[in-house]
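Task 17 of the worksheet. Students: predict the tertiary structure of the chain below and write it out as C-alpha coordinates. Keep your answer in the requested format; marks are given for formatting as well as content.
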Amino acid sequence: MRPAGEIRQALLQACAALARPGQGPTLRELAAHARVGLDAAEQTVKNMRRAGVLHVPRTRRVPYRNRPVAEYAPVAATRQGPSCGAAVLSHALQGWG
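Model answer:
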Protein backbone atom coordinates (compact mmCIF):
# COMPACT_ATOMS: atom_id res chain seq x y z
CA MET A 1 0.00 0.00 0.00
CA ARG A 2 1.19 3.52 -0.77
CA PRO A 3 2.17 5.77 2.12
CA ALA A 4 -0.18 8.59 3.04
CA GLY A 5 0.33 11.82 1.10
CA GLU A 6 1.21 15.19 2.58
CA ILE A 7 -2.33 16.54 2.37
CA ARG A 8 -3.79 13.46 4.05
CA GLN A 9 -1.23 13.62 6.86
CA ALA A 10 -1.83 17.34 7.37
CA LEU A 11 -5.61 16.88 7.51
CA LEU A 12 -5.35 13.98 9.95
CA GLN A 13 -3.05 16.00 12.23
CA ALA A 14 -5.43 18.97 11.99
CA CYS A 15 -8.38 16.74 12.88
CA ALA A 16 -6.58 15.40 15.94
CA ALA A 17 -5.49 18.90 17.01
CA LEU A 18 -8.93 20.51 16.60
CA ALA A 19 -11.05 17.70 18.07
CA ARG A 20 -12.76 18.49 21.37
CA PRO A 21 -14.90 16.15 23.48
CA GLY A 22 -18.19 17.68 22.36
CA GLN A 23 -17.26 19.09 18.97
CA GLY A 24 -15.21 18.10 15.96
CA PRO A 25 -13.78 20.26 13.18
CA THR A 26 -15.67 21.00 9.98
CA LEU A 27 -14.16 20.67 6.51
CA ARG A 28 -13.35 24.39 6.34
CA GLU A 29 -11.72 24.33 9.77
CA LEU A 30 -9.63 21.31 8.75
CA ALA A 31 -8.51 22.98 5.52
CA ALA A 32 -7.63 26.24 7.27
CA HIS A 33 -5.69 24.54 10.06
CA ALA A 34 -3.84 22.22 7.65
CA ARG A 35 -3.25 25.14 5.24
CA VAL A 36 -4.49 23.27 2.19
CA GLY A 37 -6.97 24.34 -0.46
CA LEU A 38 -10.65 23.68 0.11
CA ASP A 39 -11.01 21.58 -3.07
CA ALA A 40 -8.02 19.39 -2.18
CA ALA A 41 -9.27 19.05 1.40
CA GLU A 42 -12.77 18.10 0.24
CA GLN A 43 -11.51 15.33 -2.06
CA THR A 44 -9.00 14.04 0.48
CA VAL A 45 -11.55 13.97 3.33
CA LYS A 46 -13.94 12.11 1.03
CA ASN A 47 -11.22 9.53 0.37
CA MET A 48 -10.34 9.33 4.07
CA ARG A 49 -13.99 8.62 4.95
CA ARG A 50 -14.17 5.91 2.30
CA ALA A 51 -10.94 4.36 3.64
CA GLY A 52 -12.30 4.38 7.20
CA VAL A 53 -9.80 6.89 8.61
CA LEU A 54 -12.38 9.60 9.42
CA HIS A 55 -16.04 9.45 10.30
CA VAL A 56 -18.86 11.94 10.92
CA PRO A 57 -20.07 11.60 14.52
CA ARG A 58 -22.50 14.55 14.28
CA THR A 59 -23.42 17.71 12.39
CA ARG A 60 -23.73 21.31 13.50
CA ARG A 61 -25.13 24.58 12.23
CA VAL A 62 -22.70 27.26 11.10
CA PRO A 63 -23.37 30.87 10.07
CA TYR A 64 -21.96 30.54 6.54
CA ARG A 65 -24.36 27.79 5.42
CA ASN A 66 -28.10 27.13 5.63
CA ARG A 67 -27.77 23.38 6.18
CA PRO A 68 -25.85 21.70 9.00
CA VAL A 69 -22.25 20.75 8.18
CA ALA A 70 -20.45 17.55 9.14
CA GLU A 71 -17.99 17.37 11.99
CA TYR A 72 -15.12 14.94 11.52
CA ALA A 73 -13.29 12.70 13.98
CA PRO A 74 -10.51 10.16 13.50
CA VAL A 75 -11.81 6.59 13.63
CA ALA A 76 -8.75 5.26 15.47
CA ALA A 77 -9.57 7.49 18.44
CA THR A 78 -13.02 5.93 18.84
CA ARG A 79 -12.13 2.25 18.38
CA GLN A 80 -11.30 -0.06 21.24
CA GLY A 81 -8.57 -2.68 20.91
CA PRO A 82 -6.26 -3.33 17.98
CA SER A 83 -7.44 -2.01 14.64
CA CYS A 84 -4.52 -2.86 12.34
CA GLY A 85 -4.63 -6.27 10.66
CA ALA A 86 -1.13 -7.15 11.89
CA ALA A 87 -2.04 -6.09 15.44
CA VAL A 88 -5.19 -8.22 15.37
CA LEU A 89 -3.21 -11.24 14.16
CA SER A 90 -0.53 -10.68 16.80
CA HIS A 91 -3.17 -10.40 19.52
CA ALA A 92 -4.84 -13.61 18.35
CA LEU A 93 -1.54 -15.51 18.28
CA GLN A 94 -0.61 -14.32 21.76
CA GLY A 95 -3.92 -15.55 23.12
CA TRP A 96 -3.58 -18.88 21.32
CA GLY A 97 -0.18 -19.97 22.65
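Marker's comment: DSSP finds four helices and two strands in the chain. The chain has one domain: 6-96.
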